[in-house]
Amino acid sequence: MKNAILNYIKKSIIRFARTKHGRQLWKLFVSLVNGYHLRRLLVKALAIDVQTHSDAFTVFPKIRTSLSDKNALIIMPFYGNDAVGKNIDTKINTLKSMGFTIHVIVYNDSPWDSCNPTWDYTYNIKCKNGKFGTLRYDVNQQIINDGNRLDDWIDDEVCQFVASLSATNNFDVAIINYVFLSKLCLYLNKSAISIIDTHDVFAKRNTRMTKIGIKQDKFYFSTSKDDESRGLSRADYVFAIQEAEGAYFSECVTSKVIVQPPILDKNFIDFSPKMNKRTVIGFLASGHYPNVVAIEKFIDSLAKINHNVRLVVAGTICGVLSERKYPGFVHTLGFCDSLEGFYSSCDLVINPDELLSGMKVKCLEALSYGIPLVATKAAMEGILSSESYHKFETAEECAEFISTLKKDELYEMAEKSKDTFMEFNKRYNFGKTILQVLKDNE
């Protein structure tokens, strides 16, 4: 009974922490605790000997030496329970199955630390120069859409840390997530095979974001084609997340380009439409702002036409959606405890994203559960399908299709999801990709 209560309290805290108000409260708490004067009071009150406990006040975590003769380094700017995190998890699990000891560096300016029990060594490094996540402005203090320079978000300290860690552990392979951390390729041990995992094209990314209605306050790293090409060429290999981006990178970088999308396990459920009259539409997503724009366009489109739909939205996106009042057919569930439970509760899943960028892992995830999926062409980029309901141009077209959909049509759509997923997994295999990379460098 006691454990059940504690687990309930723990889950409640986690759910609240992922809401908008939870994030604001935590940010306030961290700023207070890390304030100079309060920190001095705490040290004095607890009678802490700063000299004796100097590790608590060092700039970097202590570097540890691996006893393994096979070491892999993963560097990323963030990690969480989202599409990016699942992609990284898949690759780390594959490397571990091949006998590699996993060293992870998470570098950002967040007060949160990241960890995972499957990682052997974890280092959370915070940017010290205050520039991580910043954009560039012109003389009139207007944001330059694609004004980031290649190394804007890197500081000297993390470069020194990577050099020291690499010298200590002599990595066989290093996977660096995103081009804006590409400078770290230059600080690896010479024998390390360096790979930049792109996830997306960052050249003129904010300009593309603007075209689908995303405002400047939601902009992210965006640079020139020349800077991106120079950054990617620092690595031995570039992993593109889908074929179109692979072809693009092959034309502008000197590194070897390999198309390696995320690979998910098959999780097919015993699908059958729900007995209730309404069609239950699911949307599971992070708070990444293109997801917000996509689902709001879909909701607005659905609100203008006759339908018999109940839309359920889950994931950290719910903390962002809480800022606006939505029609009665929209229900937000918050953080999702069980993927299988969520997908089992839906008649079909929607992805109305109109931003052509990277690969939408949430599409792949829905297919991996064998659930009917309705999506735009942009959302399905990199996932081959001949079905017309996987190729809509806009969120409005998705809404119109769903409003006329009959439940007995869902059985065939579920089978098509399974077929599409199995064909995708046949084409790509991360284990084979890494083995080939290692073989080429023997």
Automatic annotation (TrEMBL):
<dbReference type="GO" id="GO:0016757">
    <property type="term" value="F:glycosyltransferase activity"/>
</dbReference>
<dbReference type="GO" id="GO:0009103">
    <property type="term" value="P:lipopolysaccharide biosynthetic process"/>
</dbReference>
<protein>
    <recommendedName>
        <fullName>Glycosyl transferase family 1 domain-containing protein</fullName>
    </recommendedName>
</protein>
<keyword id="KW-0808">Transferase</keyword>
<dbReference type="Pfam" id="PF13692">
    <property type="entry name" value="Glyco_trans_1_4"/>
</dbReference>
